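Worked example 4.2. Below are the chains of a multi-component assembly; read each line carefully before continuing.
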Amino acid sequence: MDGTKAAQGRNPIWQVIGASSVGTLIEWYDFYIFGSLAPIIAAQFFPKTDPTAALLATLATFAAGFIVRPFGALVFGRLGDIVGRKYTFLLTLVLMGGSTFAIGLVPGYASIGFAAPIIILVLRLVQGLALGGEYGGAATYVAEHAPSERRGYYTSWIQTTATLGLLLSLGIILGTRSNLDADAGISIEKFEDWGWRIPFLLSSVLLGVSVYIRLRMKESPAFTALKQSGKTSTNPIRESFAHRSNLKMVLLALFGMVMGQGVVWYTGQFYAQTFLENACRIDFGQTRTILIWAIVLATPFFILFGWLSDRIGRKWIMLAGMFLAVASYRPVYQAMLDTSSTKGLASDPSLDRVQRSLSPSNGKQWSLVHVTSYRAFPNGILEKEVRRDTLYADERPIGAGSPKVSRELPSDRYRWMVALVFVQILFVTMVYGPIAAFLVELFPTRIRYTSMSLPYHVGNGVFGGLTPFIAVLLTTMDAADPLVGLWYPIAVAGLCLVIGTLYVSNRIDPNVND
Amino acid sequence: MNIVKRIAGFLWMALAPAALWFLVSTALQEVARKPVTDTKIQWSVFCIVFLPISVGLFLFGWYAVKGEYDRLPESSGELDVD
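Applying the procedure described above to all two chains together yields the following structure tokens:
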């Protein structure tokens, strides 16, 4: 059955794209708020004896979320190939939304002790499993409705959802963090105390809307036809990975395209954020708005490259994105360091100022002292150093406190930083825009969900998802080179570029209903 | 081109155990340098996760050497999975 006719007879294509995209966007939103709030979650749910250990514990949980994604791909991919696309990606949506909402309700470590981090870890694993099942279903569902000459274009809308989910999470976190009180400092304190739960709880509203939309959709025409003819797979995992003819395509998809796409994606959108905050020491709010601007400006390019892939093929667009990333990461990140640097500059003493504030003791024998020093540099950068220490009622001396330095960029440098992050997200749009169509075309309908989900989630979940973590780890192993973390994405994308160039075909499959 | 694909297959086959060796030796060094639970968990996770991936890379190289990628299917319908 022709996909277009089926689509017209059942669900108009834009309804199909809308229903699939909204759900996938929400799943990404749910997944990212946890990563974005990692330091706060660490403070709330993990023992506070060692803040670094607490943060690492959260990052490990974050990684666990990514590592279980391939298992989710197998579990839900199998279900999607046996039961159908629609009910499977409805189930993944409910699991994801439910676990996100539950995270927002879990009492902290201070209230229920060690049960708190265990519950969080379990919920995070459920999120990872659900995400593993979502993307393959949404991409397959749209592709099986789309006409062959517009498959890249239509599926590219699904491809925007991962980035837009990140955008939504950043926007909601930033909005909540700055609107809990008229005083900015108190608003942040409230956010870190209890306000961080709001983005998690908000997920239930988004979930309700998305489930309602998806329930109204019908099964994909290609899968319905397969089911009616009794040709659905009885064991999709065996058929996908035990048959050499299909396994070789799974391996080609992973090593020739997806692993490179995964590291480019996570470098541009996650490592960039970590780097801005930790290496460039850009202030929390500016880091988020830089990323938001870059995402907003780059998102239309997902559609452009998806559309272009229908005309010139998928392969060379994606490999060009990888090549540009490999060639330019080090100069781009060096430029990010230079843009935020105050090295060799003396601050203007006439503009330097120091603020002291004392948080209310509320009947305790101590209260917190915040000493904030501002230094203005000739290149327009405003550096803020906050020292926080405890002031005791018995007049014990105040220590120096551990300083936390952050920088605020002037508008010209801010715009340049947006451009540097935008370039990285542009590479993301090149590698990611056409990939759903590319993967869908590699595999037959009866085992498509399973076959495309596994390489996608190994490439993105393992290779990509661990990028910020491994990059930070490399930085701790060689502290002398602030760009050392980039060798991981450069090596993986470089290897993928060579394999993709040699082995991947640029041919567009005209019929995905086989 | 098919000759290059097949010869490169040996490279992928060699790269798989080499990458795994590099990973495991780095893991052992790092755990010895900082023998705390966090380090052990992190590196164990890396090794466990990348083990099947390196097996996959070896298999990919093996298929390349055998000429499995000399001609790719024209459509997914050609894949014999029934």
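Take a moment to check your reading of the output against the notes. Chain A has two domains: 3-340+411-503, 353-408. Residues 353-408 of chain A form one domain.
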